[in-house]
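Consider this one:
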Amino acid sequence: MATFSSPNVNEGSALWTKQTYYSTCDIYADAFPQPSNWLRSDPIEVHSGLKTVLVTIKYRTLNCSSYSVKRGIYCKNYFHLYEHQSWQPTGPDPLTNTASYDKIAKTAPSDFGIKVNQTLRIEVKRKYIVLAFHDQGSCSVLFSVTVSYYVCPGLTHISSLVSLPRTVAPANNSKPVEVGCATDAFNKQGTLSLDCQSDGVWNISSLNGSCLCREGMENTVGKCEDCPEGKYNNGNGFNCTEVARGTMNAIVTMIKLVIPSAPENVQVIFVNRSALELQWQPPVVTGDQTHVFYDVDCRKLCEDEDEDMCVNNACGSEVIFIPKRDGLNVNHVIVGNLSSFVIYTMQIFAKNRVSELARRKHGTEANFGEISVRTNGSEPSVTMYLNIIYGLVGLLALCIASFTCYIVYNSHRNKPPDVEFHSLPKYPKLREIYDLRLKNDNLKTNSSNTRICSRHWEGGTKLSRIHLPSLFPWPNTSTKRRDIVRKPIEESTTSTVFKILCSGDVETNPCYVPKCMTRPRRQNHTSKLKVFYTKARSIVNKVAKVQLELANMQADIVVLTETHLDCTISSEEVIGSDYTVYRKDRAGNGARYGGGVLIATKKSIITSIREHQDLPSELLFVEVIMDGEKKLTIGTFYRPPKSDLKPLEDLRSCLSSITTTDLLITGDFNLSEFDWSTNHPTKSSEHHYLSSAIVQDHFLYQMVDEPTRENNILELVLTTNIDLINNLEVGEPFSDHNSITFIVNTRPYQQRISTKENYAFNKADWNHLKSLFSYSPWYFTIEQQDINANWEAWKDLYFAAYIKRIKYKKENYRQVSLTSIISKTAEKIVKSRVVSFWTEHQLLNPSQFGYLEGRSTVSQLLSCCNAWCLTRNSSKVSDVIILDLSKAFDSVTQERLLLKLNRYGIDGQLHLWFRNFLTNRKQRVMVRGSYSDWSPVTSGVPQGSILGLVMFHIYVNEIPGIITSTAKLFADDTKIYRQINNVEETIALQIDLTTLDLWADRWQMKFFSTKCEVMRITHNKDKKSTRYNISSTVLRNVSNYKDLGAIMTSDLKWSKHVEQIFHKANKVLGLLKRKVGGKNKDIFSNLYKTLVRPILEYACPVWSPYLIKDIEEIEKIQRRASRIALGQRRQEMAYKERCKILKWNSSVLRRDFLSLVECY
């Protein structure tokens, strides 16, 4: 609450007088000067970060016409509100410095002396705000002034375990806020974010993931607490589950034993005065877990002379770790920003998913490997860095080939002097491998070719093998040579030994050199392809940076533009020897300046450069052999900023020759002022129009939606298949442009095999099958002669899971029942009888349009649009509320449904039949031929069955009758709307919402409040409606929404819908072009009519466009399709002639025909 003071005014004027409120009544003055009464607040300090504040004043102003006595000539029905902002906590006197105040509002008179609340929004410009009220002859009372702002509260969302920080709400719209997990909870899906809306409400529907409690804990009202005794949670669910007797002890034992052992062979492979690189080998014991990760701890060695007071200090926050410090999935890390000439101790902790639980339950800390290093070198040059890398690789190869020695067992008591002994691993499996390798080398006593290490001498005489400790007992020297039979070693065993010797699991004794070392077999590339793209701006100066980026990301494909390379620089020098490099340097660029493109692929991937790429522009295309011998064409393109149309024309020519289904192009197109959401330029130029034509003609989709240089999207990723690209991220600036990384959703060398059997019905001998049926004893095909027992089996449900939205989220899959043929036949008979009975007696509500004879989505849309247009044309307002029932079909309570069926005339034997149909069912899920266990069905109606929709209609049939607003239903899709003439209409609409909420609670259903929306249909620019709420959640205001497949907008225009169906139809048309093309015009014509035309014509009687641009947009699809069908290029034949050959009518004519069919 703001505090106020009244400055001095001219004599004779009535002041604002303070009692428990402020008042003034200066209405009787007839002479000059005019009354001028000011009331000013103290400076109000504004919270940092605020963009707007709300000022709410509660006042009463009497109408001058209500005074029975004579009033003065200056009587006013209002007073004014001013504001002044400054950086200092002072406010100027409005009497002497009125110009420094800004008028922001004029109050309205309050009829019949009623108190009025008026809220104003003030844009914050400075730290302090001063409010002032100016009266010039009114009779007013100011009760209170409140200055406030919206804040999204800090809380924990119970169901998702997401911790929401207290956040100042934005001025307009909403802003994403990065959120974390509650205590002892973790997130598996990356960064979590949630939208904080301008009204101070968290938009829970925008949450892009959730958190789970750690292992051994469960969600208890938004907190992670330990599981009760006898229960356990493995970290993949929200709640603990019962554990069988004896299993809990096994789990506890497992936790004690399966944490990983320490990382092996921790070593420094590079160090200078400010950075070092660590590398280690995985632990031998991984705890039987599929995933081991690493945490890095850095400490500086204390140099205090008092050793008792000296404790290793943790490295400061200025030290950086690349790629990161905790949760590493790789076995190397770069530590930077270190101090010079300081001894650092690095500890590498190996962890798995039970490490945290083991620490919490039993105090078992993670095992770690440790190394100390002193930073005392100088920073190497690029050439020195490469030499170090190549030298290390060569040294490693030399070690493996020549100097790797096996170990001896430390059991010989009489050891010769200066001989070091080392223990074998304690694990039996590794011990067997060592034994087998040693036996296979045909060890011989006193063999002439036996090599003894140089330090194994005694008294100047070289020791023989019998004097050396060994894994085997050596016989006397007189014993003859023994022939030891070589046993076969599996490839995996060889690979294991190779890894053991190189990992430093035990230190090798430099004595016997093995005859051979089998190299591990090279494996095929089985993971999804990781692609890294950047504009290099001379890669020669960034070799170390590129190699560091590739080592961090483990990229499979590297795409670079503006490489600035020429024939004097080899590809291995800049990329390395692990990649197959394809380049196209700028022609005539001997000075090595400007231009050039490059594509590099891992050598484990089969690739080939596309032929006929002798075009002068900087573009390059490479074909990659993918899973199932399919081909993926990857290309890169660079268009100089001030170039002519030649580069784009060359790109268009090259794309016309590509016939592969999957195409991916990335590069620097230098096209600003382009709206990639619609593929239309916002700038009129030949370059922009040609680029738009290329994208549309080749059915390309642009995937980058973040700026790559300043506020412009210059780097593009174009593809013919949206599902081909995943996890696209715009990274940090590499040169003057940001880098881009993404994953290609396909694998090389792999073919997904399904266990489901697919029958070739077209090759079946049906005549022979019919003859066999005629001799079949059908009474044996029924397992039981009791018809009731067989009916129970026929009721069992198989569920097929179908994706509804985005993949990889289980909540986005919908189950569809697959019932038996006999069950479907019985359902169809019952449905025809009960629906005809309900229709005859007019029991079905006419507001229900879902799956009933004579009604459709089009008829409902026409009914709604007609009512809204009539209201809008009369300059009135309609509020439309879109409701969403959460899991509607699954939430139907069977007993309540049977009660409603009885109310609608279903009784006797038929009612018993419905009860038997709904109850005692079993269900299982089928995915690619695999089945889940059977589980009982306790609620809901079967989705996909014939009677399921009819029974659901009865369950919600009463909704339109319990509210006063108009309701329209299509199965579970519900919307209500009302014409708003005054405040009472909005109150009535809110009452209807409350009634529906109470109805849902009574019938054990629930509205998904975060998905419910409100849209105001009006001529006015301000389309925000009244704040409606359901289930204590304020409904979100929208300007458009998707209603039964059509995009409805607040101004009832159809441009957005036309744009949406254009992109959808163009995507399908692109698929037809790639799969069929112009090989057969009849087949292509039939496919176009079947797959593309329905997209363009669905519900067209409702939205048939009247704007020329929308009409041309839709006609453009058919123009393009007619060219593809006949295999023609642009302007080769007139559009009307092509339609005559294909026997097609224009899209305009077909929409008129369909509108006439719908109406008449």
Observations:
- The mean pLDDT is 75.
- The two ends are 66 Å apart (CA to CA).
- The longest strand covers residues 52-61.
- The CA atoms of residues 903 and 954 lie 10 Å apart.
